[in-house]
Amino acid sequence: MLRRFPPGVDVEACISLECLVRLKDIALHRARVGHPVLAARALLLLRVLLKLFRGRVTDVSQYCPALLMLSVSSLKSSTPLLQMASCKLLQCLLPVAHANDILASFSESQEVLFSIALGDTTSDALLYLSLETYSEWISCCHSVSKCVAAPGSHSRLFQCWMGHIRDPHMGELVVLMFRELITDINDG
């Protein structure tokens, strides 16, 4: 729908920031009443709208705390599609959210992200996405504070790597994550 706007039309004038709030409410409601596919679609549309509004005069940072909370609660879903949509929304939120909001929501979500990565039924795409999200998130947290990683993060990351040791791309991602975790320990 958004791609079908004719060139030159101000999309922001057509779509208000109230859409963000409504979509957030829809996603929360659908996730609670057992419609994870609809909740995932709402999260993905939220991501598209955030990308549209980012870099314009509109300040979306005021909505970030609620959207971070929504994303973290959606990560806890047992539906991979909703988990994936949540990770993608989180990656879009991290550059625009206030650092303290990012830090506050990280402690709750890091265990969920590792649970997803270590899941027996987790697809490769969701595995990479959850680890990339964790890496970006802890990097953002380090701009505010060190020692934010959970005590067992190193061993959980090592477990994940051992489960996918034959995947050469996993090695690169794990090295990046270990760098963040080592920074977390040494500077704390």
Describe this structure in words.
The structure is a single chain. The chain is built from 9 helices and no strands. With 188 residues, the protein is mostly helical. It folds into 2 domains: 1-97; 100-188. The longest helix is centred in the middle third of the chain and has 20 residues, at 99-118. The model has no long low-confidence stretch (mean pLDDT 79). This is WGS project CAEQ00000000 data, annotated contig 1947.
Question: What's this, in brief?
Answer:
By secondary structure, this protein is an all-alpha fold. It has two domains: 1-97; 100-188.
Show the helix and strand layout.
Elements: H1 11-14, H2 18-32, H3 36-53, H4 64-75, H5 80-93, H6 99-118, H7 124-142, H8 153-163, H9 168-186
Strand content: under 5%
> Class by helix and strand content?
mainly alpha
N-to-C series of helices and strands:
HHHHHHHHH
Tell me the domain tally.
Answer: 2
From the spread of the alpha carbons, the general shape counts as globular
Biggest sheet record: none
Secondary structure: helix percent: over 70%
Distance between the termini: 47 Å
User: Would you report the number of β strands?
Assistant: 0
**Mean of all residue-level pLDDT scores:** 79
Low-confidence stretches: none
What's the tally of helices? Answer: 9
Radius of gyration from the alpha-carbon trace, in angstroms:
17 Å
